Amino acid sequence: MIVEPAPAKINLALHVRHRRADGYHALETLFVFAADGDTITVVPAAADSFTITGPFADALAGGNPADNLVLRAAQGFAGVFGITQAHAITLDKHLPIASGIGGGSADAAATLRALARLHGIATDDPRLFVLAETLGADVPACLLGRATLGTGKGEALLPVEGLAGMPVLLVNPGVAVGTAAVFARWDGIDRGAIAEDGDLLARARAGRNDLEPPARAIAPVIDAVLAQLAAAPDVLLARMSGSGATCFALFDEPAARDAAAERARACGWWTLATRLT
Fold it and tell me: What are the tens digits of pLDDT across the range 175-191?
């Protein structure tokens, strides 16, 4: 049995540069990862099965299996590596759906890592990253699972010195925001590149999330989340992650993070008080 974490992905900054000829958007983003998230468990079995547990299991119930990234990752892995062994896969779902913290991408990446470990394949095998790119723009970064500058669609990765151990709070107001809808509302203006100088926190602070304005237009409650996080005592940075609606706040001390989490929970919002890895 292999138990593999699928940690939440956070975009400290996300710059949309232009729309490419292939329909994707050219991005620059600073990826980091939380210590907590979903979990994938893989067990050899007589027949393939897939079970979803956890507080957000119901949100995935009844979906089209062909659209599930965990199943697509498992099928792709079998095809690439010639695996005929069946597996029982369990996804313990703790991250909200369509929330901008890479839940589906993290789950797919964790599935690839778990299957690789089970079958004696190195988790940095280049074939895994080629497969990951076919599953989604964020899956390669989630497969790498460390602080990274992502360019292209987000799949061209340059590891950077991270912020390991920094307290972080994730807050989601309970609104699912579709990635395609947010990108469709992006205004098309290139506001420039991510700063090359400074440490990761300085580069993030100098940056922005170009998807915040369209996401806030779709889900105005994001305004309230960001305002509350930005006003929190001792906050270092508050911003929306990905295409939303999850927002994050970085802190120097766990106590300040935990106090901010208590205020967010009082609003009925989902929270995850954790740290960066």
Answer: 999 999 999 999 999 99
| CA-based torsion, 5, 238, 222, 229: positive or negative | positive
Predicted structure pTM score:
0.96
d(CA 210, CA 226) in angstroms, rounded, equals 15
Spatial distance between the Cα atoms of 98 and 172, rounded to a whole number of angstroms: 10
Q: Any idea what the CATH number is for the domain that residue 263 is in?
A: 3.30.70.890
The torsion of the CA quartet 69, 183, 32, 137, rounded to 10 degrees, works out to: 40
Length of the chain: 277
DSSP code of residue 190: -
Active site residues: 9, 138
Contacts of 168 (CB under 8 A, 6+ apart): 10, 34, 248, 249, 250, 251, 257, 274, 275, 276
pLDDT single digits (tens) 9-52: 999 999 999 988 888 899 999 999 999 999 999 999 999 999 99
In the chain, the number of structural domains is 2
